[in-house]
Design brief:
Belongs to the bacterial solute-binding protein 1 family. The chain has 434 residues and is of the alpha/beta class. It has 2 domains: 204 residues, D-Maltodextrin-Binding Protein, domain 2 (3-Layer(aba) Sandwich); 192 residues, 3-Layer(aba) Sandwich (D-Maltodextrin-Binding Protein, domain 2), CATH 3.40.190. 45% of the residues lie in helices and 11% in strands. The strands form 3 sheets. Strands 6-7-5-8 form a 4-stranded mixed β-sheet. Strand 1, helix 3 and strand 2 form a beta-alpha-beta unit. The two termini are 24 Å apart.
Length: 434
Amino acid sequence: MARNTRITRRSVLKGVGTASVVSLSGCLGMGGNGSSEKAEVLHGWTGGDGQDAVNNLIDGFKKQYPDVDANFNAIGGGGNTNLDTTISKRAQNRNLPSSWADWPGANLVQFSESDLLGDIGDVWKKNGMESAYSKEAKRLSRLKGSTVGEGSYAAVPIGSHRLNDLFYNVKVLEKAGVDPTSLSKPADLLNAMKQVENKTDAVGMAQGQKAPWTTLQLWAVVLLGQSGYDAYMNFIDGKGKAKDVRSAFETVKQYSNHFNKNASTADFTTANQKIMNGEAAFIHQGNWVAGAYRNQENFEYDKDWGAVSFPGTEGIYTLHFDSFPFPADGPAPDAAKKFLEYVGTKDAQVRFNKFKGSIPPRTDVPTKEFGPYLTKTIEDYTNVKQKPPTIAHGLAVTSNVLSDLETVINDEFLGSGNIKTATQGMLDAVSKQG
């Protein structure tokens, strides 16, 4: 799930203290098991591969549970900005839906600190979920910072995106004489972009900077590629080194000389279109762009587009998950649990991910319906040892810290262009972590 604009929930959840959380079951007249309420599930997938994926998921749920009364609502607009706003307001009013699409990990702390999430350990005992999900998926789905059920499961991941891929247009690279498999460090990519622009009419890298998350995402993968796994994890833990942070900014600044001219006003979908049109050689994005490529006519994997690990990150899988959380006092909890049980099945994860350009978080799902690119991604997800959580998409940092990081990117790096203050700003932001 890519988001063009991330709205912090700091202000809306401020004041929703532990002692003030009340059960909605009494005021809504749900009864002891919530059977009189219709389950309400919100998501932000309103177009393209995401809409196809979630509709296929819903169809599968209705076939398996035809008697469950559930209403699935799409909240579109602004790369999930409207969904974020809706959830924020409803959290403030202690009126969360039965479930909603969101990121797990540190992103859920904003809810768990106010005891707004419930324990679904019973759901995780169904369908072999505890044995089938990866250890990272299980860890990031557990409550943190909650006075009720600390360490209990509070969400079910539906799909995983890899965040350290470098996508490219095959024909552009062939014309430029660039071998993407030869790029072993971020500096090699810079040289490749220069070669592309010397020998073709394409730009070196497609980038949309309209929202700060794309630049934060690029900066993070450069940090990982240049300074390594330990430096990346140390940064997340508030123990990063200024030289590593600064060096990543300097490299991204050099990359920017080879972005499309409209990068500052383009979103990532507009930028990605340049790969499909042959107007750009490379783009760094999560593997959701594979869903866009799948829907593009006459744009085939290996023939027209390809992907390699971002230079310097071979043998690493940067984790990103989409999930469905379970609120402590949402409407129709029994129906919600049935939906979450279904989300955790092999059938659900095939139905959703084969359209979304993501992969199943379960490690026992057959790969025959996923094609060569996603099958390779599934193999890496299962086998690689290092799986650092994504910074730009809420698994690694809380919503407040993420908001601060995006502000630094927007105001200091993209705005004033002051790498020194941007470096200190990034270090200051993660020092609040935990």
